[in-house]
Design a protein that fits this description.
Order of helices and strands: HHHHH
Radius of gyration: 16 Å
Number of helices: 5
Helix content: over 70%
Number of domains: 1
Length: about 130
């Protein structure tokens, strides 16, 4: 889906990244409304689908935004920060209060905000 959407001239890379980053955040926020395990699984499917597209576009786009001499280093830094944040989220989850939806609200809001920020990436990216 990511490969298809970025090739549509009216949508492009920037809008695909923005939409699916915000959509990932929306699914995270909506997952707080789940009251059954089926609802949790449904919202998690939405989160995983949208975030897979988001990461596909993000990692391809990060190479295009960086100058040629810095592409390898920049891509590695994006990838490393992603891995560190994923590991930290798991560690924080072990010690945090899991009886509150506050971490999900925060991460969902950050993703929605990041989706809007993605709209302001370089103008050469349609």
């Amino acid at each position: 889906m990511a490969g298809y959407l970025i090739e549509i001239p009216i949508i492009g890379r920037r809008r695909t990244l923005a939409v699916f980053t915000a959509l990932t955040g929306v699914f995270v926020l909506l997952s707080t409304t789940a009251s059954t395990s089926n609802a949790v699984n449904g919202w998690n499917c939405g989160v995983n689908y949208a975030s897979t597209i988001m990461y596909g576009v993000l990692f391809a786009l990060s190479l295009e935004l960086l100058p040629i001499k810095a592409r390898g280093t920049g891509y590695a830094m994006v990838f490393i920060v992603n891995c560190i944040c994923n590991a930290m989220a798991s560690i924080i989850g072990l010690y945090a209060n899991i009886n509150t939806p506050l971490p999900l609200w925060f991460s969902g809001a950050v993703l929605v905000l990041a989706g809007f920020i993605a709209l302001f990436f370089g103008s050469s990216l349609v």
